[in-house]
């Protein structure tokens, strides 16, 4: 019986990578809260997750060195946010409160995914070591 | 891992906000500097921010957008000219020139800069926690 690490971890690694990228995009929004003309951006997590799922079901390998490598980039475009306030005069669409909360929520969800992964790993450890005996 | 890039991004935000804080401090400190000619009078200074799209694109094509201070401009607002013939710095017509610093504006700027700085610090702190947790993955 072979243990497949990919299957054991499920989609959580993908979720982590998407959360990781989303954290960066949100931090850019926060850093540029006072930059004139800056447009806030975000990643649609649901859509990115769907892309990741689709990729996971059909994995592609290279059988010849002249084949093109399929990039393993986590999908999901960064889209511009619809501002929920009228233009404040400087063309900046960052709502700092919204971005802060989104960043914190994203960070919590990242840590939740980490907790899932840790539980999976300790489960597999138990299976390998026979319950630590 | 783009988590490490967050430190750069939040850091650029902190640097930009501290430049803003510096100019505000300098404006407030010089709010009452009197001079005897238009040219010598202190003018309010304000930094100009711009989003900095890092030229070095990563393999994944997601380029971080930090903040860059493009430069510092002096305000074009008219100076406060005051008729004070007895002032030792008055010019031959009896006028002294005061800077065009608007204290109210500067106070608002200061509060805004300090809040934004705080937010960037919190972002970097949260990113640090995320990295630390990730490094401890599987050890719990």
UniProtKB/TrEMBL annotation, chain A:
Classification via PROSITE patterns: FLAGELLA_BB_ROD
Functional summary from the UniProt entry: Structural component of flagellum, the bacterial motility apparatus. Part of the rod structure of flagellar basal body.
Species this chain originates from: Rheinheimera salexigens
This protein's UniProt keywords: Bacterial flagellum, Cell projection, Cilium, Flagellum
Cellular component GO terms held in the UniProt record: bacterial-type flagellum basal body, rod
Family: Belongs to the flagella basal body rod proteins family.
Compartment(s) of residence: Bacterial flagellum basal body
Subunit structure: The basal body constitutes a major portion of the flagellar organelle and consists of a number of rings mounted on a central rod.
Predominant location category: other
InterPro entries referenced in this protein's UniProt entry, alphabetically: Flag_bb_rod_N, Flagellar_basal_body_rod_CS, FlgB
Name of protein: Flagellar basal body rod protein FlgB
Lineage: Bacteria, Pseudomonadati, Pseudomonadota, Gammaproteobacteria, Chromatiales
Domain named Flagellar basal body rod protein N-terminal: residues: 14-39
Gene Ontology terms: biological process: bacterial-type flagellum-dependent swarming motility
Keyword Hydrolase applies: no
Automatic annotation (TrEMBL), chain B:
One BP annotation, GO: bacterial-type flagellum-dependent swarming motility
Domain Flagellar basal-body/hook protein C-terminal: 93-137
Keywords: Bacterial flagellum, Cell projection, Cilium, Flagellum
Pfam families reported for this sequence: Flg_bb_rod, Flg_bbr_C
Subcellular location: Bacterial flagellum basal body
UniProt superkingdom: Bacteria
InterPro entries documented for this protein: Flag_bb_rod_N, Flagellar_basal_body_rod_CS, Flg_bb/hook_C_dom, FlgC
Family recorded in the similarity comment: Belongs to the flagella basal body rod proteins family.
Subunit structure: The basal body constitutes a major portion of the flagellar organelle and consists of four rings (L,P,S, and M) mounted on a central rod. The rod consists of about 26 subunits of FlgG in the distal portion, and FlgB, FlgC and FlgF are thought to build up the proximal portion of the rod with about 6 subunits each.
PANTHER family, per database record: FLAGELLAR BASAL-BODY ROD PROTEIN FLGC, FLAGELLAR PROTEIN
Name of the protein described by the UniProt record: Flagellar basal-body rod protein FlgC
Organism whose genome encodes this protein: Rheinheimera salexigens
């Amino acid at each position: 019986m072979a243990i497949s690490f990919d299957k054991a971890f499920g989609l959580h690694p993908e979720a982590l990578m998407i959360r990781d990228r989303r954290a960066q995009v949100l931090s850019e929004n926060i850093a540029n809260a006072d930059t004139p003309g800056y447009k806030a951006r975000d990643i649609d997590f649901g859509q990115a997750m769907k892309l990741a799922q689709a990729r996971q079901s059909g994995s592609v390998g290279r059988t010849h060195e002249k084949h093109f490598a399929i990039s393993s980039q986590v999908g999901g475009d960064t889209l511009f946010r619809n501002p929920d306030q009228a233009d404040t005069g400087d063309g900046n669409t960052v709502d700092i409160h919204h971005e802060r909360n989104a960043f914190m929520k994203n960070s919590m969800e990242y840590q939740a995914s980490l907790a899932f992964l840790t539980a999976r790993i300790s489960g597999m450890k138990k299976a390998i070591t026979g319950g630590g005996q | 891992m783009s988590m490490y890039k967050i430190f750069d991004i939040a850091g650029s935000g902190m640097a930009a906000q501290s430049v803003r804080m510096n100019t505000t401090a300098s404006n407030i400190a010089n709010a009452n500097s009197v001079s005897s000619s238009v040219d010598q009078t202190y003018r309010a200074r304000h930094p100009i921010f711009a989003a900095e799209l890092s030229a070095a694109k990563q393999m994944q094509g997601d380029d971080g957008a930090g903040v860059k201070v493009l430069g510092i401009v002096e305000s074009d607002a008219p100076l406060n000219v005051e008729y004070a013939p007895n002032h030792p710095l008055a010019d031959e017509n009896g006028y002294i020139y005061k800077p065009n610093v608007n204290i109210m504006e500067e106070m608002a700027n200061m509060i805004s800069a300090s809040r934004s700085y705080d937010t960037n610090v919190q972002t970097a702190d949260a990113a640090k926690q995320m990295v630390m947790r990730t490094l401890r993955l599987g050890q719990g």
